[in-house]
């Protein structure tokens, strides 16, 4: 019977770390998707405001209304820049999470390889012991047959 893998707790820990890294990446990707949708909505709103402003300007607006529209458009542009900045930060976060997941996968694979090597070594040792036992039995039978 093979001996237990001494680093099983390390392998279990590495698997947990990898799962956590997968979850963190999934959350970061979800956040990035949400920001992408918000960016699209904000761009659409800004496009609508701009075209509506141009149409109303042609129809004739009071100075107060013109200033109000301009103010709203500036606010919408600020919101868009803020979302774009957040989106860039989320891209950085997603890249960081992917790198962390790659590292945790490599760590887990390294321990799994070690486990496989140990299993192969244990099988070889068991086979060697079995062969020694068979040789000893054969030797005893031969010695018993000669006497």
Task: Write a concise synopsis of the structure shown.
With 147 residues, the protein is an all-alpha fold.
Query: What percent of residues are in strands?
Result: under 5%
Helical content class: over 70%
Structural class: mainly alpha
Total DSSP helices: 2
Total number of beta strands: 0
Q: Which regions have little confidence, pLDDT < 50, spanning 5+ residues?
A: none
Quaternary structure classification: single chain
H/E order of the elements? HH
Average pLDDT, rounded to a whole number, is: 91
Largest sheet: none
Whole-Å distance between the termini?
Answer: 36 Å
Radius of gyration using CA atoms only: 34 Å
**Can you tell me the overall shape?**
rod-shaped
Pfam families: FliJ
Subcellular location: Cell membrane
Keywords: Bacterial flagellum biogenesis, Bacterial flagellum protein export, Cell membrane, Cell projection, Chemotaxis, Cilium, Flagellum, Membrane, Protein transport, Transport
Membrane topology: Peripheral membrane protein
């Amino acid at each position: 019977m093979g001996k237990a893998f001494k680093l099983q707790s390390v392998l279990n820990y590495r698997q947990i770390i990898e799962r956590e890294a997968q979850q963190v990446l999934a959350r970061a990707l979800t956040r990035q998707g949400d920001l992408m949708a918000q960016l699209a909505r904000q761009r659409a709103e800004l496009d609508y405001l701009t075209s509506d402003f141009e149409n109303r300007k042609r129809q004739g607006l009071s100075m107060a209304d013109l200033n109000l529209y301009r103010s709203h458009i500036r606010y919408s542009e600020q919101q868009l820049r803020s979302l774009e900045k957040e989106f860039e930060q989320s891209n950085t976060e997603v890249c960081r999470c992917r790198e962390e997941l790659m590292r945790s996968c490599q760590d887990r694979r390294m321990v799994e390889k070690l486990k496989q090597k140990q299993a192969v070594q244990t099988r070889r040792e068991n086979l060697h012991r079995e062969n020694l036992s068979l040789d000893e039995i054969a030797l005893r039978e031969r010695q018993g047959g000669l006497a």
